[in-house]
Amino acid sequence: MSDQSTLDDRFGKCPYATAQRLISGKWAVLILYYLEDGPIRFNELLRRMPKMTHATLSVQLKSLEEDGLIKRTQYESIPPRVEYELTDIGRKFHPVIKAIETWGMEYIDTVCKK
Question: Which of 92, 96, 90, 56 is nearest to 72 (CA)?
Fold first, then answer.
């Protein structure tokens, strides 16, 4: 059995497998971090992540939306405007983002600066 099928079998049953699958996208954590300050437009997200392609961001946003972590709102204006924001459950990811930041800084200080 592959690691992915094991993870899929445990999704919704095991909290670790569920969380891992939800944030497994290469850019998922960074997108969730950028959305913490409120709604943001697609192109602004793309500008904040210059190494990401339009297609990759679109796929990541769609995945996070399908998983219920973010919400997409399309405004009927000219030109059309689309914004992304965290859902209630997405906002509850904030302590995890802070813990990742703290751990990341400790890792940088301990390992990367040697």
Answer: 90
